[in-house]
Write a structure and sequence with these properties.
With 267 residues, the chain is an alpha/beta fold. Helix content is 28%, strand content 28%. It has 2 domains: 135 residues, D-Maltodextrin-Binding Protein, domain 2, CATH 3.40.190; 94 residues, Periplasmic binding protein-like II (D-Maltodextrin-Binding Protein, domain 2). The chain contains 6 helices and 16 strands. Helix 2 links the parallel strand 3 and strand 4.
């Protein structure tokens, strides 16, 4: 540390030591609560699911674990990945399922399903009859995006570079707000969708259209703290996620022989 007239400033070595100290404290706090998770078969799976994917992920996972012998009850919580990562670091969740581009520092992820964004439109929209479009087709549309970083900035920059950035009229932190705006005919949306169809909270159907020249690969992934060794039950969870019925034209399962954990270091 260095003394300053207005206080104390950490040196580079001090900042590095602080990161290590925080990591040690996180491990000490988390490990006792996760001990049962590393048993051959936990009595309960405490699962966090990113809100945008919960409607498809939860039924598939709950059904898969209910059919095991003995069955494993699934307790779940949905929310933003930042919220879920904090709960996992506090030992209140065993594992999180979410999108790779939202991976928080100090976690590692196992990608299971590649996903690219699709255009979400109401059934009566002129583009709804097409299976694929190009970004230029959005020039006269009003577009809404999901306001979650870093995905929002990445997508907005790409749209700007293709000359259609002006179409972005709003951004919401809630997927349901986007789906409601689209269902009401107020705008079209850009979302990662993994299901065969899409509906808003009121049950109104929406169409998902592939965008040929929007090359933004993402992946639905299993996430755990970086210091943890993968537990046997994660193999079951990966199989459960793979049972989700794929219907979007922009989804592709990762071959199990290519499974590889991806890390994002602590900041």
């Amino acid at each position: 540390m260095r003394e300053r007239s207005k206080g104390v400033q950490l040196t580079d070595e001090g900042r590095a030591a602080l990161v290590q100290a925080r990591d040690i404290l996180r491990r000490v706090t988390t490990l006792p609560a996760l001990a049962g998770f590393h048993a051959q078969r936990p009595t309960t799976l405490r699962l966090g699911i990113f809100g945008a994917s919960s409607a498809l992920v939860l039924p598939a996972v709950a059904r898969y674990f209910a059919e095991l012998t003995p069955p494993v009850p699934v307790e779940f919580k949905d929310g933003s990945l930042d919220e879920l990562a904090e709960l996992m670091n506090q030992g209140e969740l065993d594992v999180v399922v979410g999108f790779l581009n939202q991976l928080a520092p100090g976690l590692k992820a196992l990608p299971i399903m590649h996903v690219t964004p699709g255009l979400i439109v109401p059934p009566g929209h002129p583009l709804a009859q097409r299976s694929r479009i190009r970004l230029a087709d959005l020039a006269d549309e009003k577009l809404v995006l999901l306001r979650l970083e870093p995905a929002y900035t990445i997508i907005k920059r790409l749209l700007d570079s293709r000359g259609v950035g002006h179409t972005v009229r709003a951004a919401y932190r809630s997927v349901e707000n986007i789906k409601s705006a689209v269902a009401a005919g107020q705008a079209v949306g850009l979302l990662y969708s993994i299901g065969p169809d899409l509906r808003n909270a009121e049950g109104q159907p929406l169409s998902v259209i592939a965008i040929e020249d929007l090359e933004l690969d993402n992946a639905l992934s299993i996430m755990i703290p970086d210091f943890m060794e993968p537990a046997p039950v994660l193999d079951n969870l990966a199989e459960a996620v793979r049972t989700i019925t794929l219907g979007s034209p922009h989804t592709r399962l990762v071959d199990p022989s290519e499974y590889q954990w991806v890390r994002r270091p602590l900041e």
